[in-house]
Every structure is written in C-alpha cells, then in structure tokens.
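Q: I'm writing a short methods note and want an example of a predicted protein-small molecule complex. Could you take the sequence and the SMILES for NAP and return the bound structure as tokens? Please keep the output block clean; save any remarks for afterwards.
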Amino acid sequence: MSEQSIALVTGANKGIGYEIAAGLGGLGWRVGVGARDAERRESAVEKLRAAGVDAFGVPLDVTDDASVADAARLVDERAGRLDALVNNAAVTGGMPQDPTRADPSVVRTAVETNVIGVIRVTNAMLPLLRLSASPRIVNMSSTVGSLTRQTSSADLAVIGPLSVAYAPSKTFLNAVTIQYAKELRDTPILINAACPGFVATDLNGFRGVRTPEQGAAIAIRLATLPDGGPTGAFFDDAGVVPW
Ligand SMILES: NC(=O)c1ccc[n+]([C@@H]2O[C@H](COP(=O)([O-])OP(=O)(O)OC[C@H]3O[C@@H](n4cnc5c(N)ncnc54)[C@H](OP(=O)(O)O)[C@@H]3O)[C@@H](O)[C@H]2O)c1
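A: Understood, no commentary inside the block.
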C-alpha cells in the first residue's frame, strides 16, 4: 500500500472545498479534486499543482449516478484506494426560502444535492475507502442544521435566514451521518459531520465572516483523525455541536 494518503473532496473547485484540498495537499496528501464543471475543475487543479499539491481532477456531479460511478472508477485507476472522502459539495437551492411561500423544487434541489448526493457518493466510494487502514468520511454540514441551535440561540449568524430547504437539508444530512456511523461502527471507518462556521463564499454572496481557509480547518482535522477517534458526531472549531 502506498505511503501517501489519498483524499477525494467534492465541490473542490472553489470556496471551502478548494481550501480543504489545499490543506490536505499541504500535509502531503494526494487529492482528487471533485468538480462538475471541466473548466473550473482544471483551473483549480492547476492552481493546486502550482502550490505544490499532488492534485488530480475528478469529473463529478453528485446528483448524477453515472457521473459518480465514473468518478469512483477514475479514483480507483488514479489512486487505487481512498483514505478520506470529504462530502463538501452543496447548494442552497435558491433563496428566499420562507416556508409559507416555498417552491417545492427549491427543497427538492437542496435535498438532492446535499443529502442524496452525499449518500450516492459515499456508497460509490466505500469500496475504495474499505481498502484504507484508517478511512475517514467528513460530511460538510452546518450549525443551521442543528435543531438545538435553531431553537435556542438568539445569534442571527447561527440561526441564519428563514430556510425551508437548505437548513433542513443539513439536519437530514446529520441524521444520515448518524445512521452510517451506526452501520459502520465495527469497521475502522470514522464518519462525522462538520460545520465550517460562517465563511465568505459564493454560497452566501460572500457575506460570511471567516475565510475559506479557516472554514476548511475542521474538515481537515476530521479527515485526519487518529484511529479510535470519534464517529457519528458533529463538530466545529469550538468542539461538539449539538444535534
Ligand atoms: N459558506 C458558509 O458559511 C458555510 C456555512 C456552513 C456550511 N457550509 C457548507 O460548506 C460546504 C462548502 O460550501 P461553500 O461555502 O464553500 O460553497 P460554494 O463556494 O458555493 O461551493 C460549493 C461547491 O459545491 C459544488 N457543487 C454544487 N453542486 C454540485 C453538484 N451537483 N455536483 C458537484 N459539485 C457541486 C460547487 O460547484 P460549482 O462551482 O460547479 O457550482 C462548489 O464547488 C457546503 O457543504 C456548505 O453547505 C458553508
């Protein structure tokens, strides 16, 4: 087995995903840059390589079965296994999302990408993860998906805008993360949810207060957890986030 650790990051062409790829690359990892758009993918791969990262492009639309199956084949050919999968790709589905005026297609888009996309990619990559001695899965969630925080905080940066699609899609993702952890509890696979904080990216019109590099830190930490580390939990930089 090669010494170099191998990761796949979905939605790695920009924002927090790009910085997760850069951060893991900086630790010496080989990184598959999952991205659906060829031009954006290649420009991210070029930029990462120029920074010294051992990066390779992985065409990947998380909503498309064939694309995800092709991506698993490509990672197998290029790397032969996976040590970490970071399910980072997500969409808001479109705003506004006031529940009483909801467009069902907005909800469907958010769930299709942020939840079903994660299940689709995870299951396709599991055979490659099972070849690793210390496999890790990180699901990029958000504190807006924390029911506890949504109902107990007066902090608008935590509560976020009214959101009948995006925020519940992250609650759904958290619940899915727990189910995976339960099924995989007797394996070396550790799977956790992460919140990057409120980060200035396209997702929020760059209104966030943290940099993408700061947002990437928690995912990098969870992708590099030591054996015996936590699984089935939800973390941000400050520690455990309540469900
Ligand atoms: N920014 C924040 O404050 C914040 C807070 C909490 C959690 N998060 C989470 O952090 C993660 C990264 O968000 P970000 O802020 O970096 O957002 P971003 O800049 O909008 O990046 C999202 C990434 O996901 C990709 N993507 C979307 N749909 C896809 C699909 N169907 N297939 C493949 N890739 C797809 C995008 O690709 P394209 O370029 O092709 O669109 C892009 O690379 C997300 O899971 C988000 O929910 C962000």
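A: Remarks, as requested: Strands lie at 6-9, 30-35, 54-59, 84-87, 136-140, 190-194, 234-236, 239-240. The pocket of NAP is lined by residues 10-11, 13-17, 35-37, 40, 60-63, 88-91, 113, 140, 142, 195-196, 198-199, 201-204, 208 (CB under 6 Å).
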